[in-house]
Amino acid sequence: MRYQISGKQIDVGEALQTHVRTEMDLMLEKYSQRPTDALVIFSRNAHEFVCEATVHLSTGLTASAKAHATEIYSAFDKTLEKMDKQLRRYKRRLKDHHRVRSAPVEFAGAPSYIVAGRNETDEVEPADLQPVIIAEMETRIPSLSAGEAVMQMELAQSPVLVFRNERHGGLNVVYRRDDGNIGWIDPQH
């Protein structure tokens, strides 16, 4: 298991790093026997500590959780509890997914852009309507079934997931609707 434990303007001591590794290893042993990556970031928001954790499972899926508390250890413990709950909820599906899949999930690269939003002080739209790109990066698009895509979106606590449908190879989107249900966009190819 490879860990990356860091703090944003916080010194993360050796004792906290050891605690994170030990507790994460114990939790992940229940769900995944294969090596994984874990990224844990601590930060401070006013009087509270914030802990964000992302775990890349050997199946290619990603689980993430975030919590805050007045103590840094409590923030991590709450984050770990949320992640444990997610993985417990999907344990059977994760095992079935791994058994059926002979190779890890494949990913394709795609450019990703962050576009500047409209300021609230802007009263009139500009005539050219050309968005200002403020960041450009590479993103990964997984090849999954629709069911696996919904599970991945839930595990990552993401409102939307773009994926390549394994059945026909086309790009699809799953997203959380305002009514709490999941929407699935499968355009004709």
The major sheet is characterized as:
5 strands, mixed
CATH class of the largest domain: Alpha Beta
* Overall SS class: alpha+beta
Number of domains: 2
H/E series = EHEEEHHEEHEEE
User: Portion of residues in helices?
Assistant: 25-40%
Binned strand content = 35-45%
Radius of gyration: 19 Å
Question: Any idea what the CATH superfamily of the largest domain is called?
Answer: Ribosome hibernation promotion factor-like
Give the strand tally.
9
Instruction: Tell me what the CATH architecture of the largest domain is.
Output: 2-Layer Sandwich
Total DSSP helices: 4
Task: Please give the order of strands in the largest beta sheet.
Answer: 5-6-7-8-9
**Straight-line N-to-C gap:** 40 Å
Low-confidence stretches: none
The backbone outline, from C-alpha atoms, is globular
Kindly state the mean pLDDT as a whole number?
A: 82
- For this structure, the CATH topology of the largest domain is Double Stranded RNA Binding Domain
